[in-house]
């Protein structure tokens, strides 16, 4: 029986993780869970699984949880998530919170030598060197939940990483794949939230529309698989059937295919190295699909992808700025305060105005993150 601490339980990945735990109640126990404020989604999970520890984002939610579940241990905020992630009864930490707020819990889980299943890609973008250094020191393997990285993990299948020549990430193109830049001028939040292939949280859906999601994934792949940026390619593949590929030194290419269902990578990260049945997912029918399409990525059409490669290559605090500026800009867009194309303008400006710090420690990363968010707000106010 694996005891799980699930961070971000009320989100898109969180709820699908709950589904996986429910399907395999003989394998997994939901021991601890963290969420923000969404009590409507959290309440039924608490009732069903009776976790020993619950973490919430603010005092108000804490009081509500305590009055509904008086016997429960409830904790607050980042310290609470850290406690859940490092709890001595916990075997596996699933980090599915949105944003760089997940960083200290990830680091804590690694230092406590937990098995870490990571969806929270912002953690790796903002402080990849610290996370990977901690993972190597503690001999903890990070199991990716992001579908592309799960695909790469499966394609590598334990082969020596140095035998892999290249990583090829596929991109579905997001909600605005077929729009020109001119057509992007007037798009609104509702249009952007309408992703053709995947149903996900709001922030990552916007990231998919701007192509920043793929940019973050390039950086995530760089850290997870120790691959130089020159050896990470992105190609457009609108069907989302091939979830990513690895080219080996002998030019042999491995690809992982399947219908789009995040429970596949979530479950694999929990059961690795074995697999379990996933009863109600669709089988891939290639005959029905007929054709798969591939296209080169246009860096002018998708400047966020270009900026992510550039920030990644510069290294140091540049990716911290990229991530924080993006989180802040997307938040402003979701609140209706800026236009869609202003997202990339703000990120570009934040990157231009930042003086890089090489090999930043945790304190520097947290400070740069906070400072960048303030700066992005000051650009619009
Ligand atoms: P959602 O927005 O759906 O969920 C985010 C979760 O994090 C919610 O449970 C939310 O709580 C919680 N949360 C946010 N801020 C805090 C905080 N300060 N303290 C505690 N909890 C917090 O996001 P997704 O599930 O879509 O994505 C989660 C992560 O997984 C992201 O990093 C994303 O990039 C990554 N990912 C997601 C994929 C997907 O298919 N959705 C695919 C691949 C990666 P509440 O809602 O209660 O406030
Ligand atoms: Mg992905």
Automatic annotation (TrEMBL):
Group of enzyme by EC: oxidoreductase
EC id: 1.1.1.267
Pathway: Isoprenoid biosynthesis; isopentenyl diphosphate biosynthesis via DXP pathway; isopentenyl diphosphate from 1-deoxy-D-xylulose 5-phosphate: step 1/6
Residue positions binding Mn(2+): 146, 148, 217
Molecular function terms, GO-annotated: 1-deoxy-D-xylulose-5-phosphate reductoisomerase activity; isomerase activity; manganese ion binding; NADPH binding
Catalysis performed (reactions): 2-C-methyl-D-erythritol 4-phosphate + NADP(+) = 1-deoxy-D-xylulose 5-phosphate + NADPH + H(+)
One Gene Ontology term from the biological process aspect of the record: isopentenyl diphosphate biosynthetic process, methylerythritol 4-phosphate pathway involved in terpenoid biosynthetic process
Binding site for 1-deoxy-D-xylulose 5-phosphate: 121, 147-148, 172, 195, 208, 213-214, 217
Amino-acid positions noted as binding NADPH in the UniProt annotation, renumbered to this chain: 10-13, 36-38, 120, 122, 201
InterPro entries recorded: DXP_reductoisomerase, DXP_reductoisomerase_C, DXP_reductoisomerase_N, DXPR_C, DXPR_C_sf, NAD(P)-bd_dom_sf
Keyword set includes Lipid biosynthesis: no
UniProt keyword list: Isomerase, Isoprene biosynthesis, Magnesium, Manganese, Metal-binding, NADP, Oxidoreductase
Record-annotated 1-deoxy-D-xylulose 5-phosphate reductoisomerase C-terminal domain positions: 142-225
Keyword Oxidoreductase attached: yes
Residues of the DXP reductoisomerase C-terminal domain: 257-374
Membership in a protein family: Belongs to the DXR family.
Record's protein name: 1-deoxy-D-xylulose 5-phosphate reductoisomerase
Annotated source species: Pontibacillus marinus BH030004 = DSM 16465
Gene: dxr
């Amino acid at each position: 029986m694996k005891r799980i601490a699930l961070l971000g339980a009320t989100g898109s990945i969180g709820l699908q993780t709950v589904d996986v735990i429910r399907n395999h109640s003989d394998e997994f126990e939901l021991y601890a869970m963290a969420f923000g404020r969404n009590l409507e989604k959290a309440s039924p999970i608490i009732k069903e699984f009776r976790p020993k520890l619950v973490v919430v984002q603010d005092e108000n939610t804490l009081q509500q949880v305590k009055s509904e579940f008086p016997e429960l241990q409830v904790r607050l905020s980042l310290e609470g998530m850290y406690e859940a992630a490092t709890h001595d009864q916990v075997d596996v930490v699933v980090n599915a919170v949105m944003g760089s707020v997940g960083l200290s819990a990830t680091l804590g889980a690694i230092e406590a030598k937990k098995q870490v299943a990571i969806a929270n890609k912002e953690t790796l973008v903002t402080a990849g060197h610290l996370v990977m250094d901690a993972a190597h020191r503690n001999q903890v393997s990070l199991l990716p939940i992001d579908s592309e990285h799960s695909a790469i993990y499966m394609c590598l299948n334990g082969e020596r990483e140095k035998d892999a020549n290249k990583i090829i990430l596929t991109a579905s193109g997001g909600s605005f794949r077929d729009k020109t830049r001119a057509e992007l001028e007037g798009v609104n939040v509702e249009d952007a939230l309408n992703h053709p292939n995947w149903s996900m949280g709001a922030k990552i859906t916007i990231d998919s529309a701007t192509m920043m999601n793929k940019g973050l994934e390039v950086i995530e792949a760089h850290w997870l698989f120790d691959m130089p940026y020159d050896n990470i390619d992105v190609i457009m593949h609108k069907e989302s059937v091939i979830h990513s590929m690895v080219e080996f030194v002998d030019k042999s290419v491995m690809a992982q295919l399947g219908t789009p269902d995040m429970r596949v990578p979530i479950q694999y990260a929990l059961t690795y190295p074995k697999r379990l049945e996933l009863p109600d997912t669709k089988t891939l029918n290639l005959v029905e699909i007929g054709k798969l399409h591939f296209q080169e990525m246009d860096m002018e059409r998708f400047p966020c992808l270009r900026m992510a490669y550039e920030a990644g290559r510069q290294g140091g605090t540049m990716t911290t700025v990229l991530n924080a500026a993006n989180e802040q800009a997307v938040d402003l867009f979701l609140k209706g305060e800026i236009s869609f194309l202003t997202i990339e303008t703000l990120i570009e400006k934040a990157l231009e105005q930042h003086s890089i710090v090489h090999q930043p420690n945790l304190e520097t990363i947290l400070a740069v993150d906070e400072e960048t968010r303030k700066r992005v707000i000051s650009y619009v106010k």
